[in-house]
């Protein structure tokens, strides 16, 4: 059913039930995301896509649009709120970009640039989370995990459909885990998918390093905003890149 | 500004050849800029120099009181803009940073170390005792047969338990991330500030690595 | 050779080498994958051999009991817990195998809940309720006595593995704190002397049940519950705790008039959910009735986790059948065949009693097949035990937990009324709401409408604790003022009142005493904690923030990370190192957490700070400091250098050792 909604004062025609992040992108409005993957079930974990709908703050990726919605994306307080969420993710783990394999290909970093983060307003914590290196083809840099749940939900053992990645503990003591036996039988393309689906440098493929020179890395070729607004590209990405 | 005492002489208190009065007068008119390094690798300070000839265009407005070229411990007079490289890792860093804060109108964190601790802050994940032990006591590079000693002397600043971002010690006005930031990025910030434009780092030049 | 069995199950070892040798090999199971000894004390040999015995066939039996249904994982984990006293990895691995889950997947669930342990937690596991009320009533002395007498430090075991001692958030007994649970038995009004006595009896081999229930009352008897805990109802009626009830007549009547009339009555009564959100109960039932689904479910939310709240416990103790009746009525309206009471583990001592009451209900033909002889009306209720997670009070988290998973709140929409338990339309109502529904249908909408005030009809139960003469349960009609309630409970020198627990608001009696309870003013969710002028409100705020840090499920960024920073800000204020900017940041960060979090936990967790900043700005102002010079007051140079001194002292001995070796 065709409906009309308002995004930042502009009237927009779309299909009822479409995801708000997608509707906005189709109409040239960038809503940053970290956990959302077009075409996959919504995770709603990072909250970086928070916008205001009819006066209430809501994570855009969790919202199927309906007639008459009044959506605000780029109001100053919302821009700052989303930036604050990126900033708190940077202090919660150790996001040492200069020493990270994912630099230049990292959604968190690229979104930080896009949202104008130069420093975090929150105190840096420097948590100690031990890395997990026992699997043959990949390892986990746990202090970079942002608990988006992408790997937990979308990377499963092909034969049994069992979870390969999981979260242990809750709240501040939570940490990402990997089932070594299942991980060791992941086919190479699934290993790559896991490493690429990770929006930060937590899941790292062994034997692969800094393969793209500085200046030619993923988000240097095309910024995260351009990618989000380039519908054709993000549709391809949803399969997995 | 700290003064030498009878046992110590600071570099900024050493006798210097008086400057040509006309030059001094012209310089007094200019906006004074300084940069100093705390716990970092001096890469950001080199980035300042990486402005290369682009700096020439600013020199009729700006004079640089302290940089890698004039390696004085303290700035001799109040500055409009101070750039800080490196995080706070020892008591001398704290002292220097306070001195700069008190004597600069605008203070800017330059580079990952100043902004959040950077590479030196990788030690924040371990206990200081483990750190010192690894470096001095059970060190793999220890001289065999030598008695390991953790250096301790009143002239050696004591290192702090953790490496701190500058803004957790004193108020910082602006931040230029990067490891190091490009010379052109520092130039843009400097150019904006001395020409009365607001601080702005667009996504296209904002870099954390 | 000796590592060969590490990843093998104990059962397999026993089969291969026999019981006696198995124990020695079994110790190796307590080594981690890298061969490091886990930081744990081995259980005594007797317990260990018992465990080996237990392993034989027990786990397949557990799996069989629940037909290998993954959604019953929580129950199976409890069964493992009861077998071993904790949930060892090898047993969990066998269970996971039988359920076609990876071990880590099962660990996800185990590690989510407070009462599940992955390593030995003592032959007797002691949980001391750590609440602000307990801390006003001698908590510290009781904790010290427990640690001294049991030999276990908080968070660990004594060297013999007899006692495990843990702190736990509010167990719903704030009117008789300090309180501890020993396994499934609760001890109230603790004193150091009482603690010494309990521990010494346990050491003499008496079981917790024998100590708490010396006359051996049957556990399903109300007298047993009354022996363990007090249920003090100071003010009852007109809505709650009404006797007698002719439930068959009520149900017959409702079935005769039909579901639409029932919904109309509840809607006309303007009954709103008593769980917190205040959603219209009539509308919820109607949506659930209209939703399409092959099956539908009724869930009673008895996960009363809000610190300071204990009114649902009182209802389950004194009016369980009115709760069941509400569920049966809901089932008749929406068309459900199954109902679940999600009971928090802290109320485990009510379980046998509730099971018995359910049985009595079945005997009256109010549950089971062909209820009241009406063919096709089949409905029964099971009790699902929780395992310690405040966030499961959120209805979607509670559903996840009922499905055997981590209690993570779901993304909404879809709402539970459309897709809830097992993906089917589900009506989740709080204990108190279900009782109110029963009463509304007994007495009619007009009667209920005549109670309370505009927008807030009926009455509310309040769990009252803290500085007052008569802590306990009070039924308060909406529209009553705070001062009236304070006077009826005998408040002593009241200064501040925490309304609705940490997630609610803290109000100053002086400023807010004449405010009225009701959805448009003081929307009380069932608890009042009263603090007199001598109480340290900042440390209470800090305690509440620590509670939210501990209880955040961690699924969303703002709640997981933001509460930690908010908590640390309160600490900074208390340390006298905060300035005005810190207070401004607390407001701004609090607003961030409140507005961007996924569920009500993060949506309310900044409230302790935000509401005290509004009502008691002076307690913050008094602690603020002015910046002297360039150094920020929050930066503690002395502490930073003290770390250095500490490190040097730690390493001095090592230096000396090296030196003496060199001299030799």
Question: What are the key terms here?
Answer:
heterotrimer; B: 209 residues; alpha/beta; Rossmann fold; five-stranded parallel sheet; two-stranded antiparallel sheet; 6 helices; 7 strands; 18% strand; C: 664 residues; Glutaredoxin; 6 domains; six-stranded mixed sheet; five-stranded mixed sheet; 29 helices; 17 strands; 12% strand; disordered N terminus
Shape of chain C: globular
Roughly what fraction of the amino acids of chain A lie in strands? 15-25%
Gyration radius of chain A, rounded: 18 Å
Low-confidence stretches of chain A: 234-241
Q: Can you summarize the main beta sheet of chain A?
A: 5 strands, mixed
List the helices and strands and how they pair.
The complex is a heterotrimer of chains A (241), B (209) and C (664).
Chain A: E1 2-7, E2 10-15, H1 20-26, E3 50-53, E4 56-59, E5 70-72, H2 76-92, H3 107-114, E6 138-140, H4 150-154, E7 165-168, E8 175-178, H5 180-184, H6 188-197, E9 203-205, H7 218-221, H8 224-229, H9 231-239
Parallel strand pairs in A: 1-5
Antiparallel strand pairs in A: 1-2, 3-4, 3-5, 6-9, 7-8
Chain B: H1 21-29, E1 31-37, H2 43-49, E2 62-66, E3 79-85, E4 88-90, H3 91-103, E5 104-110, H4 111-116, H5 128-137, E6 159-164, E7 174-176, H6 183-194
Parallel strand pairs in B: 1-2, 1-3, 3-5, 5-7
Antiparallel strand pairs in B: 4-6
Chain C: H1 10-17, H2 19-27, H3 45-65, H4 73-84, H5 89-98, H6 103-110, E1 124-129, H7 132-136, H8 139-150, E2 156-157, E3 163-168, E4 180-182, E5 185-187, H9 192-203, H10 208-212, H11 222-228, E6 233-235, H12 247-257, H13 259-268, H14 281-290, E7 297-302, H15 311-318, H16 320-334, E8 338-343, H17 351-363, E9 380-385, H18 395-402, E10 426-430, H19 431-443, H20 445-449, E11 452-453, E12 456-457, E13 459-466, E14 472-477, H21 482-489, E15 494-499, E16 505-508, H22 509-512, E17 527-532, H23 537-551, H24 557-574, H25 580-596, H26 600-604, H27 607-615, H28 617-621, H29 637-663
Parallel strand pairs in C: 1-3, 6-14, 7-8, 7-10, 8-9, 13-17
Antiparallel strand pairs in C: 1-4, 2-3, 4-5, 11-12, 13-14, 15-16, 15-17
Helix pairs in contact in C: 1-2, 2-3, 3-4, 3-5, 5-6, 8-9, 12-16, 13-14, 16-19, 23-24, 24-25, 25-27
């Amino acid at each position: 059913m065709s409906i009309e909604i308002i995004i930042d004062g502009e009237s927009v025609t779309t299909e009822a039930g479409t995801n708000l992040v997608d509707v906005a992108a189709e109409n040239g409005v960038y809503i940053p995301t970290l956990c959302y993957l077009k075409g996959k079930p919504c995770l709603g974990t990072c909250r970086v896509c928070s916008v205001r709908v009819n006066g209430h703050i809501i994570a855009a990726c969790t919202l199927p649009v309906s007639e008459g919605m009044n959506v605000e994306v780029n109001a100053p307080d919302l821009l700052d709120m989303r930036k604050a969420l990126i900033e708190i993710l940077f202090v919660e783990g150790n996001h040492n970009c200069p020493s990270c394999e994912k630099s230049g290909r990292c959604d968190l970093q690229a979104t930080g640039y896009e949202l104008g983060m130069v420093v975090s307003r929150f105190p840096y914590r420097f948590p100690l989370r031990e890395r997990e290196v026992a699997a043959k083809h990949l390892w986990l840099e746990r202090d970079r995990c942002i608990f988006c749940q992408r790997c937990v939900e979308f990377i499963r053992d092909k034969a049994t459909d069992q979870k390969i990645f999981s979260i242990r503990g809750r709240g501040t003591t939570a940490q990402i885990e990997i089932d070594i036996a299942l991980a060791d039988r992941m086919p190479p393309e699934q290993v790559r998918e896991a490493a690429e689906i990770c929006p930060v440098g937590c899941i790292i493929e062994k034997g692969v390093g800094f393969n793209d020179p500085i200046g030619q890395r993923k988000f240097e070729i095309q910024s995260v905003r351009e990618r989000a607004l380039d519908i054709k590209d993000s549709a391809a990405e949803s399969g997995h890149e | 500004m700290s003064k030498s005492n009878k046992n110590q002489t600071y570099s900024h208190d050493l006798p210097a050849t008086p400057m040509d009065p006309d030059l001094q007068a012209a310089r007094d008119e200019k906006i004074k800029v300084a940069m100093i390094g705390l716990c970092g690798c001096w890469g950001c300070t080199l980035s300042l120099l990486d402005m290369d000839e682009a700096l020439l265009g600013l020199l009729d407005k700006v004079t640089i009181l302290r940089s890698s070229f004039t390696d004085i411990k303290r700035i001799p007079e109040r500055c409009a803009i101070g750039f800080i490289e490196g995080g706070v890792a020892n008591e001398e860093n704290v002292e220097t940073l306070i001195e700069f804060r008190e004597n600069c109108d605008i203070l800017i964190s330059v580079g990952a170390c100043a902004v959040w601790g950077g590479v030196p802050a990788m030690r924040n994940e371990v206990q200081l005792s483990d750190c010192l032990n690894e470096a001095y006591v059970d060190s793999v590079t220890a001289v065999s047969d030598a008695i390991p000693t953790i250096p301790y002397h009143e002239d050696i600043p004591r290192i702090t338990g953790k490496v701190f971002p500058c803004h957790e010690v004193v108020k910082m006005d602006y931040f230029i991330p990067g490891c190091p930031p490009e010379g052109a990025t520092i130039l843009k910030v400097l150019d904006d500030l001395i020409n009365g434009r607001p601080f702005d780092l667009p996504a296209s030049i904002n870099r954390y690595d | 050779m000796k590592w060969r069995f590490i990843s093998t199950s104990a059962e397999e070892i026993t089969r291969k080498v026999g019981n006696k040798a198995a124990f020695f090999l079994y110790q190796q199971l307590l080594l981690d994958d890298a061969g490091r000894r886990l930081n744990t004390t081995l259980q005594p040999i007797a317990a260990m051999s018992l465990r080996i015995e237990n392993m034989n066939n027990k786990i397949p039996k557990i799996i069989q009991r629940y037909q290998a249904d993954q959604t019953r994982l929580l129950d199976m984990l409890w069964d493992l817990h009861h077998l071993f006293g904790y949930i060892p990895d090898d047993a969990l691995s066998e269970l996971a195998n039988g359920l076609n889950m990876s071990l880590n997947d099962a660990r996800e669930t185990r590690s989510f809940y407070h009462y599940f342990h992955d390593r030995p937690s003592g032959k007797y596991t002691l949980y001391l309720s750590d609440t602000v009320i307990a801390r006003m009533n001698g908590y510290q002395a009781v904790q010290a006595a427990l640690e001294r007498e049991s030999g276990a430090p908080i968070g660990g075991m004594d060297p013999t593995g007899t006692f495990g001692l843990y702190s736990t958030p509010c167990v719903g007994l704030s009117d008789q704190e300090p309180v501890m649970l020993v396994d499934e038995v609760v001890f109230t009004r603790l004193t150091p002397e009482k603690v010494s006595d309990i521990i010494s009896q346990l050491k003499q081999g008496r079981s917790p049940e024998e100590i708490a229930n010396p006359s051996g009352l049957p556990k399903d008897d109300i007298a047993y519950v009354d022996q363990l805990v007090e249920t003090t109802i100071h003010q009852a009626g007109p809505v709650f705790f009404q006797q007698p009830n002719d439930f068959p007549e009520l149900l017959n009547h409702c079935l005769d008039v039909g579901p639409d009339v029932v919904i109309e009555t509840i809607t006309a009564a303007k009954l709103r959910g008593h769980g917190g959100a205040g959603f219209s109960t009539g509308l919820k039932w109607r949506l659930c009735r209209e939703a399409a689904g092959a099956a539908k479910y009724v869930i009673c939310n008895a996960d009363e986790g809000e610190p300071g709240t204990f009114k649902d416990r009182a209802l389950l103790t004194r009016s369980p059948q009115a709760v069941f009746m509400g569920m049966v009525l809901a089932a008749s309206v929406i068309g459900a065949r199954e109902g679940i009471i999600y009971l928090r583990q802290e109320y485990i001592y009510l379980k046998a009693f509730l099971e018995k009451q359910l049985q009595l209900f079945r005997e009256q033909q109010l549950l089971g097949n062909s209820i009241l002889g009406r063919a096709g009306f089949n409905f029964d209720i099971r009790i699902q035990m929780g395992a310690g997670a405040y966030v499961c009070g959120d209805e979607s988290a509670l559903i996840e937990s009922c499905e055997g998973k981590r209690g993570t709140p779901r993304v909404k929409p879809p709402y539970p009324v459309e897709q809830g338990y097992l993906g089917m339309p589900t009506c989740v109502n709080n204990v108190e709401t279900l009782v109110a529904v029963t009463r509304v249908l007994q007495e009619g909408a007009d009667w209920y409408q005549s109670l309370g005030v505009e927008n807030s009809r009926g009455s509310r139960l309040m769990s009252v604790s803290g500085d007052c003469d008569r802590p306990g349960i009070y039924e308060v009609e909406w529209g009553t003022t705070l001062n009236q309630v304070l006077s009826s409970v005998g408040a002593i020198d009241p200064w501040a009142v925490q309304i609705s627990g940490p997630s609610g608001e803290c109000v100053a009696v002086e400023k807010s005493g004449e405010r009225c309870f009701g959805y448009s003013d003081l929307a009380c969710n069932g608890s009042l904690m009263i603090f007199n002028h001598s109480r340290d409100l900042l440390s209470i705020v800090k305690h509440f923030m620590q509670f939210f840090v501990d209880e955040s499920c961690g699924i969303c960024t703002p709640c997981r990370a933001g509460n930690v920073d908010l908590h640390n800000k309160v600490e900074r204020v208390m340390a006298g190192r905060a300035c005005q900017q810190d207070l401004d940041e607390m407001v701004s960060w609090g607003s961030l957490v409140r507005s961007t979090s996924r569920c009500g936990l993060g949506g309310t967790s900044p409230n302790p700070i935000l509401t005290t900043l509004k009502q008691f700005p002076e307690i913050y102002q008094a602690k603020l400091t002015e910046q002297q010079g360039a150094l920020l007051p929050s930066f503690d140079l002395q502490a930073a250098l003290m770390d250095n001194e500490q490190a040097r002292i730690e390493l001095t001995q090592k230096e000396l050792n090296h030196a003496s070796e060199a001299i030799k």
